[in-house]
Amino acid sequence: MTALTTPARTTARSSPAVTPPSGPRRSATRRRWFVAAVFALPALLLLGVLVVYPMLFSVGRSFFDATGTRFVGGDNYTEMFRDPATLKAIRNSTIWVVVAPTLLTGLGLILAVLTEKVRWATAFKLLLFLPMAVSFLAAGIIFRLAYEEDPDRGVLNAVAVGVHDTFQDSSSYPTARARDGQGLAKASDGSFRTTGEARPGRTVTLGLVGVQPDELPAGAAPARRGASAAAAPDELRGVVYLDFTPGGGGEQGKVDAKERGLPEVAVEAVSDDGKVAARATTGADGSFRFADLAAGSYELRLPAENFAPPYEGISWLGPALVTPAVIGAYLWIWTGFAMVLIGAGLSALPRETLEAARMDGANEWQIFRRITVPLLAPVLTVVFVTLVINVMKVFDLVYIIAPGPVQEEATVLATQMWLVSFGGGQDQGLGSALGVLLLVLVVPAMLFNVRRFRRSQS
């Protein structure tokens, strides 16, 4: 039997041939890559010289001592967290990161929503954005002057003093003092008290010095008139006067013709048991009168409120308030930035959603809280993280606004890094370690922002 074998029919699939680019096309591609490299090379060189090389050099330098000759390993990083000044800088930087971006994002959101309902919204946004055109150096000088404690120079304390003096009278005689051996002595609480006894039926003269004649109240009258008044048997009279005769002359401890009384001075009659039996206020000629006093001896007292120093305002740049004061300057600069970015996101919101909510009966607060804020969450996050990155690197404002004696109270990581490296510490190993710490803190926020941008573009 003959086996008939049918040869298997093989069908070969022909794959499309890949033709390499022809000569002209290949040369055009190479030319495009060459042009791109030429244009990117300057930027890459600058990036390498100004960013990559300093970063790598700082990382390496942080493992050496102050002279840069001896390898110390991680000693600088250990010392960094043992140094009280560095710990204070970390604390202040934490306050900055928590407070400044939160306030700026909140202010920017509120202003962006409100400016939508303002007729001159563009002009208002321009005014708020103008501080961004001011350098941090100029802004620091402006606020350093604004925070001056002297009310004649610092505008904020001028306002504070004006408001304080409107609601509370200040003393007219802060520099007054008593002459030694003239019947008045200063007590530990700042008041003046008579050294002798005063009884009803007498007239007492209480002379003070230390007040310039041109600083007397406009209505101050001659004191002789009050000193010559006779007292009834049940009353005690007296006069508080400036024991100084303009032009010289006169007798100490006695009221002369040219000497003037001190008006609006509070006087108290204190009985033997230490209780205030009567209280009076001097008139234009400095005279006072206690009527219907019980028989006995009294001590006359001029309370310390008569001689309290004038209110000088708030110590904005003192140890307690210097960090909030610098943060206030930062808010003035960056509020417009946050408002403009959030306003751009607000203008892109779907208006039909907002109108549908109004038609369903929602009020403006409900729309803001339940619709506007959730829809703006991506924009608010980007603004917040951007401000966090910026806040971590703040240097100019802290260095310029904070005075030298309180510089350590206001220092942040950036200023501490400079002070340790160049501002007197001369320890660039420890300063480089601080720089690496700052880089480690900033990089995660930067990566988060980059991921948000990529996600919004996809």
Description:
The protein has 458 residues and is α+β, with helices and mostly antiparallel strands. It has two domains: 75-160 and 316-457, Orthogonal Bundle (MetI-like fold), CATH 1.10.3720.10; 177-307, no CATH class. 49% of the residues lie in helices and 9% in strands. The protein is built from 15 helices and nine strands. The protein has helices spanning 23-61, 75-80, 84-115, 121-129, 136-146, 155-167, 224-227, 322-347, 351-359, 364-375, 377-392, 396-401, 407-410, 413-421, 428-457, and strands spanning 177-178, 184-186, 192-194, 203-209, 236-242, 266-270, 276-281, 287-290, 299-302. A five-stranded antiparallel β-sheet has the order 2-3-9-6-7, with no helix packed on it. It has a four-stranded mixed β-sheet with strand order 1-4-5-8. Strand 2 (184-186) and strand 3 form a beta hairpin. Helix 3 (84-115) packs antiparallel against helix 11 (377-392). It is elongated and about 125 Å long. Belongs to the binding-protein-dependent transport system permease family. It is a multi-pass membrane protein. Residues 1-17 have a biased composition (Low complexity).
